[in-house]
Design the sequence.
């Protein structure tokens, strides 16, 4: 609940006219959660805000097709650069079954916070995304990256998948209005 109030407060303080709230969900004690029917022809691009708490491992994203079924085929390519107190590393993956957008550890106060911009999910072509993420995973880490889902499928929603059951997954989607 606090997370939702913070999102709303930031939105109201910034008065960002180009974002429109679409949907949010909070799930507890699960390894994945979906936001269905959030992508439509009303917006070309979307902003996804993801917060995962108390989970050891990676946070990935899958898109949902026009029937809200998970696209979990090996059609995801992604890359990111990670910065921590030891320096930076670069990671890339091709033909993956999901796009990594975060990581966190088992300490109950740890979180993985990701901001993901999803490009043209409602069109039947490649769907791309960029992301920024910060977390604590044995040390402070920050990541920036991008990815693409290549099945040329019209998408209606998104799933966040964790490789272990976290205490809480919160997802919020905003439509990005075209400023023309």
Sequence:
């Amino acid at each position: 609940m606090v997370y939702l109030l913070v999102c709303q407060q930031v939105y109201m303080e910034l008065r960002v006219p180009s974002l429109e709230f679409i949907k949010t969900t909070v799930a507890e004690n699960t390894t994945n959660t979906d936001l269905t029917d959030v992508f439509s022809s009303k917006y070309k691009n979307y902003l996804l805000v993801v917060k995962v708490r108390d989970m050891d491992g990676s946070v990935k994203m899958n898109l949902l097709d026009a029937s809200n079924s998970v696209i979990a085929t090996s059609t995801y390519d992604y890359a990111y650069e990670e910065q921590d107190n030891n320096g930076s590393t670069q990671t890339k993956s091709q033909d993956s079954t999901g796009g990594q957008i975060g990581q966190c550890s088992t300490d109950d106060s740890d979180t993985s916070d990701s901001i993901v911009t999803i490009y043209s999910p409602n069109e039947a072509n490649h769907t791309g995304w960029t992301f920024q993420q910060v977390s604590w995973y044995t040390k402070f880490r920050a990541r920036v990256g991008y990815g693409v889902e290549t099945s040329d499928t019209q998408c209606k929603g998104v799933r966040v998948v964790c490789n272990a059951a976290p205490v809480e997954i919160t997802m919020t989607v905003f439509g990005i209005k075209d400023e023309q």
Notes: The longest strand covers residues 19-28. The CA atoms of residues 112 and 135 lie 5 Å apart. The first helix runs from residue 2 to 14.
